[in-house]
Amino acid sequence: MEQVLLLTPGPTPLHPRAVAALQWPMRGHMDPEVFAYNDRIVADLHTLYQTGGEGLTCLLSGTGSLGMEAGLANLLEPSDSVLIISNGVFGERMAEMAQRLGARVSVVRAPFGLGIDLAEVSSAAERVRPKLIAAVHGETSTGVLNPIPEIGEIAREVGALYSVDAVTTVGMLEFKMQAWGIDYAYTGSQKCLSAPPGLAPVAYSARALAAISTRKTPVVTWYSDALGMLGYWEPGQQGRKYHHTVPVQLHWATGEAIRAALEEGIPARSERVRTVAAAALAAMRTVGFEPFVSEAIRLPTVLAVRLPPGLDDAHVRHRLRHDHFISITGGLGETAGKIWRLGLMGETARPEHYRALLVALAEILGEPRLPVVFDQALPTAALAA
Ligand SMILES: *Cc1c(COP(=O)(O)O)cnc(C)c1O
Question: Distance from the CA of 136 to the center of ligand 1, in angstroms?
Answer without folding.
Answer: 10
